[in-house]
Hints:
With 107 residues, this protein is mostly beta strands.
Amino acid sequence: MEAVCSFSLDGKCFFPFRYKDNLYYDCIKFKAKHKWCSVTENFEGYWKYCSETDFAKCVFPFWFRRTIYWGCTDDSEAFGKRWCSLTRNFNKEKVWKYCDDMYLPQH
Length: 107
């Protein structure tokens, strides 16, 4: 039987969500024009397009190697770009994103 998909305007993204045997911590662009997320823990056909407020947020503090970070870091990033973890323990989940201006220190 083919799965029925249902679009939601008022649902909230559920993170992390499972889709096709993978775990996602942020909106994805899988077979779609725009990024989307599941509104249930296990994707069951209920989804929504992601708005600015839906995208994953940095989690502080987070643990990377033997250090606890309270902000974005460029540690181990080949191009010196600042990044953050999307979970408290990067060493375990290894889920991250580049930091945007919202997370950079103010001068």
